[in-house]
Design a protein that fits this description.
Elements (H helix, E strand, L loop, with lengths): L5 H25 L9 E7 L3 E2 L6 E2 L3 E8 L3 H31 L7 H17 L4 H60 L7 H17 L3 E9 L5 E9 L2 E5 L2 E2 L2 E5 L14 E5 L10 H11 L13 H21 L1 E2 L2 E2 L18 E3 L9 H5 L13 E3 L1 H5 L17 H8 L12 H41 L3 H35 L3
Helix pairs in contact: 1-12, 2-5, 2-6, 2-11, 3-4, 3-10, 4-5, 4-6, 4-7, 7-11
Length: 517
């Protein structure tokens, strides 16, 4: 420092310091609405003093801005990422379970209970007039409507499973894209901070990307100290892991990938070519959180090895529908209820004296209803019956006189057999849960409970996320009132420094130009 202009240089330092503080405030105000932006402050300190030659002390030399820091609480970031992972999973499940509830559409005028009531009501009408072709046609149509209800339910669930499969692929691609962006930011941040500076805005961008990533998949984020930089500061490197394996390791990125399954995980409940999520190098991975976990659970959720559902997803409910049509068709056709062989439709006699006719069969070649004889010729016919291929037999469709009402040939007014079929409506031994309607009610109730759980968990996690977000905003967010107050403070400091420069200029003018005249 030039001792001849000592006072002027101190004033100039004050001018620069105030200007730098105002620049930082200006940057904060401009980014008040920027997502993920952290408030920045200038670190101001007294500059190095000068020792006086006569030993009277140290003379101050003004102030310096030693750095610009972002105000950020790392603990709140880690807490946000942890809670965001759980929120992403349950928010995804909440939306998907609502879709499943809409599929069952219960209670309603077009749901299962209505379809079942209409079918058995038509049987009761036939019992009143077994010779009426109009009523027989009604029974056939109501049977077809009941079968199509299950066909449509199964088809809709399969379509939803396909949609979820595509979403899983999209989520994996997005996760990889975020990882790639974080990898590039790591390079920029590391190079920018080699000289001791802090890349505040780049770090904000990286944090915002990690916020999004944490909602998609369970991640653990660390800044690992790898040594010392030339300036003596710690050499920190970003490490993001999934289940302990590095996803982003400083400059390196190990991507996730999807691979189509060679076989169905659940043959009767899954569509073909579903994706398995794994590491790009072929190693397996278990997703434990985030939206990706929610999608996988709903797409694949079924019973585990011990018989208890890992999560009751689409395969679980398809399996329940398959179980219903198998038990119901066997009971109605054969009279087998609760393991007891009673009398069913096949034991009755039609108006044309036909017998051994199954009312319900399955879709066969060309997606056409199978005949009773073709259906029963397969020993595993009822095991192969599903909600998707459930139908009324071609015998009944082609000839309504084959609907069995009697238990004795040549007695058109005999209604013994159809009365037995009508009683199945309320037979509590047909299913473990009770009558047919009880079984379906148990499915809908289970779905409702799962949906309520997803709604509650999502709401709870959302509240926690909002709380942490508010804490982050109170710590890192830009307050316009605070920035305006700081702006006035540093503006006054700037004005004072400018006045001091003018004062020192006058002093030097007198000293140089007027002394001795």
């Amino acid at each position: 420092m030039n001792p001849g202009f000592f006072g002027l240089e101190i004033a100039v330092r004050g001018l620069y310091t105030a200007q730098r503080n105002l620049d930082v405030i200006n940057h904060n105000v401009n980014n008040i609405n920027t997502p993920g932006y952290s408030r920045q402050i200038a670190n101001q300190s007294a500059s190095r003093p000068v020792a006086l030659f006569n030993g009277t002390g140290m003379l101050g030399t003004g102030s310096d801005v030693t750095g610009i820091n972002r105000i950020r609480d790392e603990y709140l970031d880690f807490k946000y990422w942890s809670e965001n992972t759980t929120y992403g999973e349950w928010e995804c499940k909440r939306a998907l379970m609502a879709d499943l509830e809409a599929t069952f559409n219960e209670p309603s005028n077009s749901g299962f209970s209505t379809m079942l009531d209409e079918f058995f009501n038509s049987l009761q009408e036939l019992a009143k007039d077994p010779g009426s072709e109009a009523v027989r046609a009604l029974v056939k149509e109501r049977g077809i409507t009941l079968a199509k209800y299950f066909n449509n339910m199964a088809t809709h669930m399969e379509e939803l499973q396909v949609d979820l499969n595509h979403q899983i692929n999209t989520k994996v691609n997005r996760i990889n894209s975020l990882g790639s962006q974080i990898q590039q930011l790591n390079k920029q941040i590391y190079r920018s901070e080699l000289d001791g500076n802090v890349a505040n805005d780049l770090r904000d961008q990286r944090t915002l990307l990690i916020d999004e990533l944490s909602k998609l998949v369970n991640v653990d984020v660390h800044e690992v100290v790898a040594g010392k930089l030339p300036n003596g500061k710690e050499d920190k490197r970003m490490l993001i892991t999934i289940n302990g394996k590095p996803f982003v390791d400083h400059y390196d990125l190990t991507k996730l990938a999807v691979k189509q399954r060679a076989d169905k995980l659940n043959p009767d409940e899954d569509v073909v070519n579903l994706y398995e999520v794994m590491w790009e190098d072929g190693n397996s991975i278990q997703i434990r959180g985030g939206e990706l976990k929610g999608l996988l659970d709903v797409r694949d959720g079924n019973e585990g090895e011990n018989g208890s559902p890992l999560y009751k997803g689409i395969p679980f409910y398809i399996k329940k529908l398959n179980q219903f049509v198998r038990v119901f068709a066997q009971a109605f056709n054969e009279g087998i209820i609760g393991g007891v062989d009673m009398e069913g439709h096949a034991d009755g006699i039609g108006a044309d004296n036909s017998t051994e006719i199954r009312f319900f069969t399955m879709l066969g070649t060309g997606n056409l209803p199978m005949s009773s004889s073709d259906f029963i010729s397969n020993p595993d016919c009822y095991n192969e019956l599903t909600a998707k291929n459930f139908c009324v037999s071609s015998d009944i469709i082609n000839d309504i006189s084959k609907i069995a009402t009697s238990d004795t040939p040549d007695q058109i007014g005999n209604i013994e057999n159809i009365n037995k079929l009508i009683k199945m409506r309320n037979n509590t031994h047909m299913f473990t849960e009770g009558a047919p309607e009880d079984f379906m009610k148990s499915i809908v109730s289970t779905l409702g409970i799962d949906s309520q759980q997803a709604v509650r968990m999502s709401a709870n996690q959302n509240a926690m996320i909002r709380q942490v977000e508010n804490q982050r905003l109170s710590e890192s967010g830009v307050s316009m009132d605070e920035e305006m107050a700081n702006m006035v403070k540093h503006q006054q400091a700037y004005n004072a420094a400018a006045i001091m420069i003018n004062t020192m200029s006058e002093i030097y003018d007198i000293l140089i130009n007027r002394v001795g005249l």
